[in-house]
Amino acid sequence: MSLSLENLAIRKSDGEVLFSNCNFSIQPGEIVTLMGPSGCGKSTLLDAVAGHLSNEFAYTGQVMLNGQSIDALEPHEREVGILFQDDLLFPHLNVWENLAFALPNEVKGKDRKAQALTALGAIMLTPLAHHFPEQLSGGQRARISLTRMLLAKPKVALLDEPFSKLDQALRSQFRDWVVEQLRDANIPTLMVTHDKDDIPVNSRVYTWPWENNEDA
To answer: Long-range contacts of range 198-203, CB-CB < 8 Å, 24 or more positions apart?
Structure first.
C-alpha cells in the first residue's frame, strides 16, 4: 500500500489558508517526515488523512491509498493507525486487554488474549500483562501503545510527535525501535515533528512550508 497526497490544501472556516498544494507519495515501509513550527497545521494534516478533521477546518485535494481515494470513507474504514504524543491507553484495561482491544474483529475468544500475550513477548514485556497503565513507566507505555496500533493491522501509520514527552535518555532508543517496527510492518508512515533529531536516518523530510513539495 502507498499513501499519496494530491494537491492537498487545508483552510479554516474563516477562510485562512494553513497550507496548499501539498503533494507527495509514501511507499510501503517508508517513513516521511514533515517538519514545521507549532501551529503550522502538522497535526491538522494528519487529521485530514485519518478522517478526523474537525468542523473548524476543510480540505480540498485528495488523500489516496494505493491509488484509490479514501476521502469519502469514515475514519474506521480508512484503516489508519495513529501514534500520538500521549499513549491513550485505556486506564480501566490492563496491558493485555489494551492490546487485545486493537485486534481485528475476526480474531475471536481466547485467540485475542493469546495474540496479545504473543505481542507482549515480542517486545519483552510479558511480566506486565496484568498491570494497568498507571503502573507503567513512560517508555513501557510508549512501546505498548505502538504495539497496540500495529496489532490493528493498519494500512497507513501516522505519527504525531510521538517522542516529545519521553525523557532524553529513552527518546533515542525508543525512536530507533519505532522506526524498525514500522519498516518491518511494511506500511507507509507519515510523521510530523518540530525536532530534527526525530527524523529517521536516510529518509525523506519536508520542511515548512510544504507547498509544492513534489516527489522527484
So the answer is: 198/33, 198/161, 198/163, 199/33, 199/35, 200/31, 200/33, 200/175, 203/30, 203/31, 203/32, 203/33
- Mapping DSSP to helix (H, G, I), strand (E, B) and coil, where does residue 169 land? helix
Query: What digits encode the pLDDT tens for the residues 180-209?
Result: 999 999 999 999 988 888 898 889 998 887
- pLDDT, average across residues 137-141: 89
Mean pLDDT score of the chain: 90
Specify the DSSP class assigned to residue 84.
-
Can you give the pLDDT at residue 210?
A: 67
Q: Can you read off the three cell numbers belonging to residue 128?
A: 506486565
| Residue type present at position 115 | Q
- In 3-state terms, what secondary structure has residue 70? coil
Round to whole Å and give the CA distance between 87 and 103.
Answer: 17
Phi, psi of 111, deg, nearest 5: -65, -30
What is the reported pLDDT for 214?
A: 52
Q: Which of 118, 115, 120, 152 is nearest to 136 (CA)?
A: 120
CA distance 98 to 75: 20
Of the candidates 55, 71, 54, the one whose C-alpha atom is nearest the C-alpha of residue 63 is 71
How far is the first Cα of the chain from the last one, in angstroms, to the nearest whole number?
A: 19
pTM of the predicted protein model: 0.90
φ, ψ of residue 155 in degrees (nearest 5): -90, -15
pLDDT given at position 211: 61
197 burial level (CB within 10 Å; 0-12, 13-18, 19+): exposed
